[in-house]
Amino acid sequence: MRLNDRVALVTGGSRGIGAAIARRLAADGAAVAITYSSAREDAVAVVRAIEAQGGRAIALPLDLKQRTALSGTFDEVARQLGPVSIVVANAGDILSKPIAEVTPADVDAGFAVNTGGTLLTFAEAARRVTRGGRIIGISTILTRQPRAGMGIYAASKAAVEQLIRALAQELGPNGITANAVAPGPTDTRMLVPARREQAPTQTPLGRIAAPEDIADVVAFLASDEARWITGQVINVNGGMA
Predict the structure, then answer these.
(1) pLDDT tens digit string along 57-109?
(2) 3-class DSSP state for residue 164?
(3) Which residues contact 170 (CB under 8 A, 6 or more apart)?
(4) Cβ partners under 8 Å of residue 7, min gap 6
(5) Which of 2, 81, 87, 100 makes the best surface tag, with the fewest CB within 10 Å?
(6) pLDDT tens per residue across all 241 residues of the chain
(7) What is the Cα–Cα distance from 212 to 80, expressed in whole angstroms?
(8) How far from 59 is each of 115, 143, 177, 190, 225, CA to CA, in Å?
């Protein structure tokens, strides 16, 4: 229980990687707040699963396209669980479209949550996270292994990596680390069938990731054992890139 007395906030924690992260942080002893934009029933199910194992968890609605919502979310987490010491900016959207077909509306949609929402999450975390805290972003293998049609998504996540590097410089004097995890193809609803079939042939380990594979690395970065790691992007892709 290496995260006892810690409070973690995981955005987009109702499904997939976010849900696995929430469950793992709770298993390590943290009280966990997860946010959701629409999947309330899934979020409640994650909370109940954590509580069934003896943990503390809450689920809060959060639309990261509403730029002023984050402050109230952090306030509510502090009120119910205590001051936040771990923030995992996991919420994100995928837009798949060739660059030649991109419209102004696509630019707004593609960067609204992945870049804008994550930036504001980091900004609020920088103001709120307690000394010795952890800030963790979620990137993607696509920032180093480009694929046709995924340019906007990759660009929006590349921004996350640069923000993490800057945060590490800015928050280091407060003993706060900032890192990102870049997963490869992972067994979630977001993975398209063609990629699900193709990806196992591209990794030495011969499979795609389970959400728990990603969550384990996030939990390590959230722990005291990772105290000397900051400003890094950790590739978690089974050797694919």
Answers:
(1) 999 999 998 878 899 999 999 999 999 999 999 999 998 999 999 999 999 99
(2) helix
(3) 126
(4) 30, 31, 32, 33, 77, 78, 81, 82, 83, 84, 85, 86
(5) 100
(6) 689 999 999 999 999 999 999 999 999 999 999 999 989 999 999 999 999 999 999 999 999 988 788 999 999 999 999 999 999 999 999 989 999 999 999 999 999 999 999 999 999 999 999 999 999 999 999 999 989 999 999 999 999 999 999 999 999 999 999 999 999 988 887 777 878 788 888 889 989 999 999 999 999 999 999 999 999 999 999 998 7
(7) 27
(8) 23, 30, 25, 21, 28
Q: What are the angstrom distances between the C-alpha of 230 and each of 41, 83, 144, 165, 184?
A: 35, 22, 20, 8, 21
Q: Which residues are catalytic?
A: 153
- Token pair of 62, please? 């959060």
8 Å CB contact between 183 and 140 = yes
How far is residue 26's CA from residue 11's CA, in Å, rounded to a whole number?
Answer: 15
pLDDT of residue 1: 65
Token pair in block for residue 44:
């409640």
Closest CA to 185 of 161, 213, 163: 213
Burial of 29 (0-12, 13-18, 19+ CB in 10 A): middle
